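Tutorial handout. Part one gives the primary structure; part two gives the three-dimensional structure as tokens.
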Amino acid sequence: ANVSSQDPATFVANKDAEKAVGTILGYIKKGKFEKAQKLILPKLQFDPEPDLGFDEPTMEKIKKIFAKLEYTVINSNTQSETTAIVNVKIKAADFQKIFTEYVKNVEEALSKGYNSNKEHDKLINEAFQKSLKDNGTKLVENQITINLVKEKDAWKIQDDIDFSKAVLGGIFAVSYIFNDM
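Part two.
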């Protein structure tokens, strides 16, 4: 059953759940991924440094892109004592586009050859920074329904593909691809 298709007039607003969504998106916006991870179920798969081999300058650029995230809570609905939904409009960078271009950039860079692991890592970081520069300024807007679960008195976001795509352009799924590169 698609919850968001319910008549919003029957919604019982859940201000705590709305606040939790704001807190979590706020952490992501500030680049505080570890804090966000603690409030997302299952554990947020986004851990770019070890997975993707990004250096500090690249991470700083990634954080700048996340800082552009905008969101508006439309409404919320309490489903039970431990479940709620929050409908949100999210504007964020198009990470799907960024990663698609990154794959092209990185293949092109690596195909020219490199002499060391250090050079390899430098090429990877430069390729990602280029794709951020080319695509990081355009924000895409999505309206999504975020499912929340109350665990030990704290509301946590149930991570799903909609949330992942709206905030990170499917970056979680993408990060697995790079583990094999």
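Part three, for discussion. The radius of gyration is 18 Å. Confidence is low (pLDDT under 50) at residues 173-181.
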